[in-house]
Amino acid sequence: FSFRLFPLREHGMNVRARPLTCQEIQAFRKSKEVMDRFIRAYKLMLGFYGIILVNEETGELEKAENWHERFENLNRFSHNNLRITRILKCLGEMGYEDYQVHLVKFFLTETLVLETLPNVKRSALDYFLFTVRSKEKRRELVYYAWQHFKPQCSFVWGPHDKLQRYR
Question: Does the pLDDT value for residue 30 go beyond 80?
Fold first, then answer.
């Protein structure tokens, strides 16, 4: 159901779903009602994944009380990773770039630092990370991932010499 809640300008898995146009995106972004519904849908999906949006201003997230059982679901069923990628892309389309950063960092922390989502790690690094629109924020997230990746010498998502100099 996330394809209806999180439309994109590209074709997805649902062949009947029509990609959004730039004009539609602009109209959505201007409508308070549409954007309120969008945030409700985002919170709904976060809840399904065991995550809570704790600050609507910033996009800050934390684990929900039921995170353990929901993370088991995320680890078991990889199709959720496609949905998360779609949500991240849609956040960018709708002007919620800061939300993208928080969600990607959340998954990087859970996969690389806390190791609670080992089966999501590949998607977090290969897909989630590169949905972030801000080049500067994406660079910071790559650096964060490199800092926590084990073994660091196997990190392939950025040049090690540049990452060592990055601050």
Answer: yes
Distance of alpha carbon 29 from its chain centroid, rounded?
Answer: 19
The full set of domain ranges for the chain reads: 1-165
- Residue scoring higher pLDDT (60 or 160): 60
Q: What is the pTM of this model?
A: 0.92
- Is the Cβ–Cβ distance between 38 and 94 less than 8 Å? yes
Would you give the distance in Å from CA 100 to the centre of its chain?
Answer: 5
Here the contacts of 36-44 (C-beta below 8 Å, separation 24 or greater) are 38/5, 38/94, 41/5, 41/6, 42/87, 42/91, 42/96, 42/99, 44/5
Of the given ranges (12-21, 70-79, 85-94, 158-167), which has the lowest mean pLDDT?
12-21
CA dist 153 and 126 (Å) reads 17
